[in-house]
Amino acid sequence: MSSVRDVFDRPMGALRISLTDRCNLRCRYCMPEEEYAWLPRQDLLTFEEIERITEVFVSVGVDKIRLTGGEPLLRRDLPELVRRLAGVPGVKDLAMTTNGVLLARHAEPLREAGLHRVTVSLDTLRPDRFAEMTRRGTHDEVLAGIAAAVATGLTDLKIDTVMMRGYNDDELADLIEFGRTVSAEVRFIEYMDVGGATRWQPEKVLSRAEILQEISSRYGSYEEVRRTDSAPADRFRLPDGTVFGIISSTTQPFCASCDRSRLTADGMWLRCLYAITGTDLRTPLRSGATDDELRTLITGTWQRRADRGAVDRLSGRADGQVFVSLESLKRDPHLEMHTRGG
Ligand code: SAM
User: Is any ligand 1 atom within 6 A of the Cβ of residue 84?
Assistant: First the structure.
């Protein structure tokens, strides 16, 4: 574990690397617009640059890498990047978060390249709802992607579901049952006000307390699984042994134990999902900075990290403002959830 600590004594543990800001879905809670200001292609970090920056981060304590996006499977030759990152000594956990649409064809090559595990985002088991929410008709492809991940032997499969009142809150048990059939742990994410102009509404949030109440009325009881890591989900076990998780980012933020930071596809390093500003690592990378210089920049910046974005968001919510206006998002795509990686 990292000996570098931030202002609140939090170590640097996990790095989420966004590989592209593009996505093949248009989920209403994440990308409600049809068109966006995209990152310029020449700014995207190359595989060599991602590998090098990963080595530097690992040398100062990061040991968990998660590939995300946008949709990471849209990045061409992804197995090649996975092979490089799997070969970085010190990477203990190499995972990917995907919407699963393209997973059926990529699961096997990714596992062969050394990907440890995959999390598939799936909010509903109903194709009509999926089409309504994502504005794409690729529900079958996602289910095929999950089946392929299972068949190919990617272990520790997780399914992440954003729970929204009036959309999929009647599918809690169905999703748990589905998870059981594919040996996946289902994790319910509270709908977050993630900063973009996503028309987030507090009434749509299905809280952790409500999720637990609904589950106990269906299954009788559950017990909390004791934490052994700094993962965002609290985990619970049902009487038959099935485990599910809740990521209560909105009503019970877990900033106090957050060891995660994010690298956008163009090399902007963000120390919090809600951060408005980040540190540009692409410029020093491309202008010849040595590993030591990058290390100094990264550790010095982490030591000044005082972000508690979700806690701040919770306490300041009453103002009813859109967190970042559409105009600002058009000027700076780094403020978008699909750019910073969820
Ligand atoms: N495209 C990939 C995927 O769908 O998993 C990776 C990127 S996506 C931004 C990562 C995760 O963020 C997804 O599970 C998505 O559902 C979640 N997400 C996006 N907007 C969210 C919001 N407003 N509240 C909660 N989770 C959100």
Answer: no
